[in-house]
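Lab channel / #folding
Pinned by the channel admin:
"Please post every new chain as: sequence first, then the structure tokens as a reply. Keep commentary short and put observations after the output so the thread stays searchable."

First post following the new format, from NK:
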Amino acid sequence: MDDFEDILVNGITFKKASGPKQTDDKVKTKAKKKKYITGAHGSGSAKQKAKYREQRANRKSQRKNK
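Reply from TO:
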């Protein structure tokens, strides 16, 4: 009840809204991060997907060489 009494006595204070978000060139999705692509972070799903990506890349490189 201390929080409730504090609100009754002091009221509620609202903070000013923060400004516009900073735009930075960081990678925001897991799918684009190096460790996720290579499956190095330990997830079985990511390792499986990395294996498929590697196979697809090998198929494309084999087509070029023919």
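NK: The CA atoms of residues 15 and 27 lie 30 Å apart.
TO: also worth noting, The longest helix spans residues 44-65.
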